[in-house]
Each structure stands twice: as structure tokens, then as C-alpha cells.
Design goal:
The chain has 10 helices and 8 strands. The chain is α/β, with parallel strands linked by helices. Helix 1 links the parallel strand 1 and strand 2. The termini are close together.
Length: about 300
């Protein structure tokens, strides 16, 4: 197989058939005949799966995979990558904001780059709503703070990846997943291509602000110990501040400037530092919980049904 296209689907019944139709037209015009389109239903509760069944019946190159429940976008991408067989794998969203017309350009650039193992799509002018752009920017800032890795907010999942890079990414089986972070972590030389970002076809993003922040925290704690180091840094600053405050208080007491101990300041100090201790214990508990879940070695997704698995 020359090309595999992987697209996770969640609550996108209205875009499944238009996506497949546009991809089929574009790839046919470019002469890319040996390809497969892998659609992964991530536990949608609308008619997404029914539309995927129609697409699979209508188009011979479409493989539909249905997960048993909602495992998350990046786990759905993993399910598609595990099944892909192409020498080049394109990962794209199903909402048509990642334009099918850009796929041949990404593939051509990857094949023209002798040393690059992937070509990442850089969204020149994002066509998202203002609040979506703000939440996305905050997400990447928080992810950078928690991991120490700088990820460009203009780059998401859309890109063309070599089979070599996909194989390495498939070997990463941790439950807290972020496909763009994995692409960064595995290394390899990367190329970039500026693409046009289309307006959303219909509906709205399934990622709310809260969901994005939760994803950033889960990924940050799942792939790095930097959150614990940040908390330790805050604790060190508080201890140092408390030490110098205590020294200053002793000098003031020796100089007779403190006549009566302050009850309120003592109580406030106890509350404050008790809160810091509880926060530290909470972080430790989260890491212990993640270790506990990791030792279970549960699968990162469960497939309920496949159509045309013999492609």
C-alpha cells in the first residue's frame, strides 16, 4: 500500500461522506490509486457509524473501525495507525478543516525530502472561532509549562508521516496520549508545509476549554515529571521566604518592636502551609495513581467492529 489516510471520527455524521468523497476525488485526480482511508469511530452517539458503513459500502478503499466506547481522539488515532499499511500515512481530522486538497501536497513534499520522516501541516490562517483559538493557545502554553516542550499551536495532527516514524509511534503504548507530542518525542528530521485551514463544515469542536486543560494536565503528568519539579520549586520558594521572614521577625522581637504574638498570622500561616502540603500530597497521589493504572497494562482502545478488515 502506497498511502494510508487515518481520520478519527467523533460526532461527525454530517462530514463523513463529504470527507470520503473529497479525498476520493482528489487522490483520483492525482493518480494515487493504491491507497486506503481508515475511519475510526471514537464512540459517537450520533449517526457517525451509520455514515461510515455507507462510505465503506460505497467506496472500496474505505475501512471503518468502531471502538467500543469513547477513548479519546489520540487513542482513536492510535487505532488507525495500528491498522495502517501505507508507506506514507496521513493523519487528518474529519471535520473538513484539514482540507483533502492539501493531502497530495503533503505526500509529495515528504517524498521529495530525502531525510525527513514527516511533513507537518502549518495552518496559515486558522478559521476557528475566537474562543477556540484562545483555548487552543492556552492549551499549548500549559502543555509547554508542564512538559518543557515547545509545540507550535499552528500545528496539530494533520501531516504526512513515514512508515518508519509510524512504527516507532505505535510502540508507545502509554494511556495518556498526545499524537503531536509523540511526533516531537520520537525525534527524526521534520519538514513543514504551510496549508490553508478551512472553516468548520458544521457543528462545533468536541474539545471544550475544560477538556483541553484536562488533556494538557493528563499529558503533562503522563509523559514528564516536570509538574512535580514545578511544585517542588514552589515549595522551595515558600520555605526560603518563610525562613527570611522568621529571621526578620526575630530581629524585630529583639529590638522590642513585637509586643504581642499575632494570633491571626499564626492561623493564616497554618492554613497556608497546610494547603501546600495537601497540594503536594495530591500531586504525589496522582503520580502513584498513574503508575498503578500503567501496571495494569490495559489496552489503549477496544475495537467493537471492523468493516473490510481484509483490505
Amino acid at each position: 500500500m502506497d498511502l494510508s489516510i487515518v481520520s478519527p471520527v467523533y460526532m461527525s455524521a454530517s462530514t463523513v461522506l463529504p470527507l470520503v468523497q473529497e479525498l476520493t476525488t482528489v487522490l483520483g485526480e492525482q493518480g494515487l490509486g493504491c491507497y486506503e482511508i481508515i475511519l475510526v469511530d471514537d464512540g459517537s452517539s450520533d449517526q457517525s457509524w451509520q455514515q461510515m458503513v455507507i462510505a465503506s459500502e460505497r467506496y472500496p478503499h474505505v475501512l471503518a473501525i468502531r471502538l467500543s466506547r469513547n477513548f479519546g481522539q489520540h487513542n482513536a488515532i492510535a487505532a488507525g495507525l495500528d491498522r495502517s499499511t501505507g508507506d506514507v500515512v496521513v493523519v487528518m481530522d474529519c471535520d473538513l478543516q484539514d482540507r483533502p486538497a492539501e493531502v497530495p501536497h503533503l505526500v509529495a513534499k515528504l517524498r521529495a525530502e530525502p531525510h525527513a520522516e514527516c511533513v507537518l501541516a502549518v495552518r496559515a490562517n486558522r478559521q476557528d472561532f475566537f474562543l477556540k483559538r484562545i483555548s487552543s493557545t492556552v492549551f499549548y502554553l500549559l502543555l509547554r509549562l508542564l512538559t518543557g516542550v515547545h509545540l507550535d499551536s499552528r500545528i496539530a495532527n494533520f501531516g504526512a508521516y513515514s512508515a518508519k516514524m509510524v512504527k516507532v509511534i505505535n510502540s508507545l503504548r502509554e494511556p495518556d496520549r498526545s499524537f503531536p507530542f509523540f511526533v516531537h518525542w520520537v525525534g527524526f528530521e521534520k519538514a513543514y508545509l504551510e496549508v490553508q485551514h478551512a472553516p468548520r463544515h458544521s457543528g462545533r469542536s468536541s474539545y471544550s476549554f475544560y477538556a483541553l486543560m484536562k488533556l494538557a494536565v493528563n499529558v503533562g503528568m503522563g509523559v514528564s515529571d516536570r509538574p512535580m519539579r514545578l511544585v517542588m520549586g514552589v515549595g522551595a520558594i515558600l520555605c526560603t521566604t518563610a525562613f527570611f521572614f522568621g529571621v526578620g521577625l526575630l530581629f524585630r522581637y529583639a529590638a522590642g518592636q513585637v509586643s504581642e504574638p499575632g494570633y491571626a498570622s499564626i492561623i493564616l500561616s497554618l492554613w497556608f502551609f497546610s494547603g501546600i502540603i495537601v497540594l503536594l500530597l495530591g500531586f504525589v497521589g496522582l503520580y502513584v495513581g498513574k503508575i498503578y493504572l500503567a501496571t495494569k497494562q490495559r489496552p489503549i482502545y477496544v475495537v467493537n467492529e471492523r468493516l473490510k478488515d481484509d483490505l
